[in-house]
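Appendix B. Raw example, untouched.
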Amino acid sequence: METSEIRRLIALEDSHWWYRERRAILRRELRGLGRPGRALDVGAAGGGNTRVLVEAGWDATAADHCQTAVETARRRGIKAVRADARALPFEPASMDLVTAFDVLEHIREDHLVTEEIARVLAPGGHALIAVPCDMALWSAHDDAVGHVRRYGRDSLTVVVEKAGLTVERMWSWNVLLRPLVVRHRRRSRGNDLRRTPLLVNVGLSAIVQAERYLPVKSLKGVTLFLRAKLAR
């Protein structure tokens, strides 16, 4: 992702409904992973998700290819390193958890990223991954933010399992708003990431939060989440 796009993301991630609910999803997933250990947040941008890890008791490090992102995370008091997701500067089996939200779709050699995730995970460690789904949703937004692909359940499973990870769970997110996204993306002329008016932000937050309680995770959404484990 270009530095300008990273700066835009950093400026919005604390308040934007999309990023706030993703952090809530991460918090819920962490509760089911047992005792906190060492964690690596790949493609961390300014460290919004890394802060969630730290708050939950994890010894977390943010990693991003963009120096601006690394410097922002450090200013926020987060441990951060500049790193290529295809060649992570960490020892094998050194992490208990690796998160990679909106990373794989930016990298042509996505299999190298999942292989690196598996390499740095300790036996029994977990990976939490999020990617944009469904090539039918491809639009000018994807071009603008540097996407190489969008994923289906099968294609995401393949790239994760070939790396030696076992998929424990996969689910769709942003299901209720998918019709609105489809309509908007058809008219899209570039990056959709922008500040939304307060009332709109509140309304969209309420809709996406409703998915916490509704049986919609097997339906088509805008994002796929996946939890995987490295066998002992």
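End of appendix B.
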